[in-house]
Amino acid sequence: MLLALLGLPGAGSALAFMPSHPVPAAVERQIAKRAGLESYSPARMMTGWHYLRWQYVPGELRIWFTNRSNWQVKFDVTPLLTKTCAAGKQQTFQLAGNKVYWSQSTDPSVDYQQQAWRCVKSPSGRWMRIVVSSPVSATRLAGVDLGGVAAAGRLIR
Q1: Is residue 45 part of a domain?
Q2: Is 97 left (phi over 0), alpha (psi -120 to 50) or beta?
Q3: Is residue 7 part of a domain?
Q4: What is the pLDDT of residues 12-41, one digit of tens each?
Q5: Is-contact 150 118, C-beta < 8 A?
Q6: I need a surface site. Which of 83, 98, 117, 146 has the fewest CB within 10 A?
């Protein structure tokens, strides 16, 4: 009841998130050293999910998370290559003060079934696209949950 009065999600909510940073501090330092101005990380993650691994290739940072069911979510940061951040959206969410876009795919050639994203301006002035994607269908993992992680993407300092 108190959670509802405060406007906070409860444990059974689709919007339940872990309160602490999901990427270990030591890993964030490694990411910042390697990725420079493209160093972003989610400030929160869905409850029950934990950090798995990360990879950086010039122009793309990837951070993977997993849960007990062995489902995976990928947090991906790349330069914005389209004219607008909203390109390809099927839905729009307003989450944590951020506009987040969502789409799903049935194309077997892509490694996800759904993705949520937002765009941020990096310290260099370049627009970056923060994408949170999963091969898990929207009927099993809510798109708004992925959107919450995308909305929580922040520059590692």
Answers
A1: yes
A2: left
A3: no
A4: 334 566 657 899 999 999 999 999 888 999
A5: yes
A6: 83
Contact between residue 28 and residue 21 where contact means Cβ atoms under 8 Å apart: yes
Note whether 129 and 121 are within 8 A (CB): no
Is residue 9 assigned to a domain? no
Query: Parallel, antiparallel, or unpaired: how do β-strands 127-134 and 72-79 relate?
Result: antiparallel
CA angle in degrees (0–180, nearest 5) for 87-88-92: 85
DSSP 8-state code for residue 19: S
**pLDDT single digits (tens) 45-102:** 999 999 999 999 999 999 999 999 999 999 999 999 999 999 999 999 999 999 999 9
d(CA 67, CA 129): 24
C-alpha span between 42 and 119 (Å, rounded): 14
How many Cβ atoms are within 10 Å of 29's Cβ, its own excluded? 12
- What does pTM read for this prediction? 0.86
Domain of residue 131, CATH code:
2.60.120
Question: Per the structure block, which two tokens stand in for 140?
Answer: 């099993």
Q: Domain span at residue 59? A: 19-155
> Is 14 part of any domain?
no
* Close Cβ partners of 50 (under 8 Å, ≥ 6 residues apart): 22, 65, 66, 67
